[in-house]
Amino acid sequence: MSIKENLLAINKTIHDTVTLVAVSKTKPMSYIQEAYDEGQRIFGENRVQEMTEKWENLPKDIEWHMIGHLQRNKVKYMAEYVSLVHGVDSPRLLAEINKQAEKHNRIISCLLQVHIAEEDTKFGFNEEELLELVDNEQFKAYKNVKIVGLMGMATFTDNLEQIRKEFSGLKSLFTKLKSNYTDFTTLSMGMSGDYKIAIEEGSTMVRIGSSIFGSRN
Fold it and tell me: What is 3-206's CATH number?
């Protein structure tokens, strides 16, 4: 199937309340342009250098989302244009994003990454660390970052009940925080293999790559 057909098929399975991030990491610009021509405007990358090159060469109304693990020393290269950072997984990274955003007179939207998977390989805050961060006075003083929600990745497993349980737990935490923070509108969970479960459990944003562009190069 073509990128056009894949996008059409996926959009049929997604509610209007759910935002589709087309994960274009490692994919050539021609693929992104093809998806863009079909109306897709939000793309996710996991390497800052690659994302910057694409930003420089592709239409300027594209929203670029940084979806991978982000190193602090790379923030300065994307602060000028990035729309949303999905994986803020430490207070120091948040401080750096605020600092670099200020240089460009921008407010960068961010999601706090929560560790929900039963794997050591995933980054993120646990619930206690998360609540500590959002109550911190220094955090509240930041003028150039806006925390708009949470992001999480489920365990890579065939056990659908486990995936559902992890997504459900993240949704509960999101709901808890949302009652105190009006900016909390985005719950980013779900990828090609599990996005339908994520949507059932309350996801408002899904990150889909291989189901649109084909398997990784």
Answer: 3.20.20.10
